[in-house]
Specification:
By secondary structure, this protein is an alpha+beta fold. It has 3 helices and 2 strands; from the N terminus they run αβαβα. Helix content is about 45%, strand content about 15%. Strands 1-2 form a two-stranded parallel sheet. About 10% of the residues are buried. It comes from Engystomops pustulosus (Tungara frog).
């Protein structure tokens, strides 16, 4: 959840943790990458998309039930 302006407001610690985990695993910048968010609810999806955008990534959202997840990341 983002409160107030995303630059100076409260951003979900869960979303922040996800970004930190991705950066630790990948060891490279998120800038220019496509990120697929699968099955997130709105309270996580919005702040995660905001943080990804601030890092220069493009995010796509899909429900768990999607039959063609692989096609979304190609």
């Amino acid at each position: 959840m983002i409160r107030s302006n995303a630059q100076d407001g409260f951003i979900s610690p869960t979303a922040t943790g996800i970004i930190e985990l991705i950066e630790q695993i990948d060891q490279s910048s998120l800038e220019g990458k496509n990120v697929l968010i699968v099955g997130a609810d709105a309270s996580l999806e919005a702040p995660l998309q905001c943080l990804l955008q601030r890092k220069g990534a493009v995010s796509l959202v899909s429900p768990w039930q999607s039959q063609q997840l692989q096609n979304k990341v190609e």
